[in-house]
Amino acid sequence: MSRKITWILSAYIAFIFIQSLFFKFSGAPETRFIFGTLGEWSGFDWFGQYGAYGVGIAELIAAILLFTPLRLYGAAMASCIMIGAIFFHLFTPLGIFMPEFNEAGEIIGDDGGLLFVNACIVCASAIAVTVMDLIQTNHLLKRVFARRSIFREDDIPD
Hints:
The structure is a single chain. The protein is mainly α. It contains 6 helices and 2 strands, in the order H-H-H-H-E-E-H-H. It has helices at 2-26, 29-42, 45-65, 71-91, 114-136, 140-147; strands spanning 99-101, 107-110. The protein is elongated, with a radius of gyration of 18 Å.
């Protein structure tokens, strides 16, 4: 049952990451607003122009890894990406409510916090996949932790 949950959560994370690539790689007004705000806030103007590409590439790599034997690393990568997104929503001028744009690129309202809530759900899903995959499999990380008594030796599958 837990393997099925792991696959369902992995598919959800990958779906969100893949569908967001259109916005990140097309220069959509939403993306320009988010990364422009962060670039201006951080003083790294280049981040406003190129940050979406870097984050998009990282999300694509994480989404691919979620469907390989390296799922643990894809889920951990997704967790880190989403923790960063949540941090920037909470502790920068970006905020929780993102503007919505019409086809002409004009602000017509806000999303009611939907992007932030989705980031929280994806983050929780990625953390859950990371933990479940670490517990279910015999990854190198688990063997290292077992030596440090975080996991009992009999918890490690052969």
